[in-house]
Amino acid sequence: MLGQRVATAVVLIALCVAGLWFVPHWVWTLGVAAFFAIGAYEWAKLTGLRRTSTAVFCAVVVASICAPLVGVPLSWAVGAWALAGLAWAMLMPAFLARAAAVRKASVPVGWLVLAPAGAALVWLGQWPWQLLSLLCIVWIADTGAYFAGRAFGRHKLAPSISPGKTWEGVAGGAVGVALYLFVLQASGAAGTGPLAGAPGWSLALTLTALSVLGDLFESLVKRQAGAKDSGTLLPGHGGVLDRIDGLTSTLPVAALAMYISVG
């Protein structure tokens, strides 16, 4: 299982690098839209949307992500990122606290989960190194939580939602991110981007916390659907939603930080 997980991650990272450095930006945009379309289909399946509603929902998510290709100004995306940030700060925690039925608001919540994150991934692709440095926060937090939780996990984080997650795992992920950011800044690799200086520490801490929230929220959706994974496309990971759960909550905030950074 671990071998499959690592192999799939390596392939995904290789595709990400190839998309960022070796193809035109419009190809990157379409690739992101296709990947998120699969995530939208998985979301629709988990939340019980009917066939027609599923098709419309997937089309709206894809159209939102591909908006720059038809000349839609960036201002719409900035607004979407801000709206998603508010949702992750207020709405999603409310769903988790009450274990509310997500399927009752499947379409608007699903759009907030997927479309702003996909649009952020497209826009941030203009700065490949900066994007990878931001993505690494989520990947390191997830990996650190996995191994620290397996080795030291005792205290459950949210047993009614995701019994396997522990506070020790969260701490391990946070330590991993702190070490990563220290090396990034000490080596000068952070440059003048959003991860530079004291603001970079605030952003990294925020993204680490949001990645946990995104993971928990997807676990809530799967638990309500009675599913272990969102799909079977990615060996060792499950579905697309299982792979991007931490990104859906972090990318909109990361994009806002980058937008401020570049003026």
Task: Kindly list the characteristics that best describe this protein.
about 260 residues; about 5% strand; 9 helices; about 75% helix; globular; mainly alpha
Rg calc: 17 Å
**Helix- and strand-based class?**
mainly alpha
Report low-confidence residues grouped into runs of 5 or more.
none
- Give the number of DSSP strands: 2
Range of strand content: under 5%
Task: Specify the overall morphology.
Answer: globular
Count of discrete structural domains: 1
Reading the helices and strands in chain order gives: HHHHHHEEHHH
Major sheet: order of its strands? 1-2
Largest sheet: 2 strands, antiparallel
Question: Kindly state the mean pLDDT as a whole number?
Answer: 93
Distance between the termini: 44 Å
**SS element count, helices:** 9
Query: How much helical structure, as a percent, in the residues?
Result: over 70%
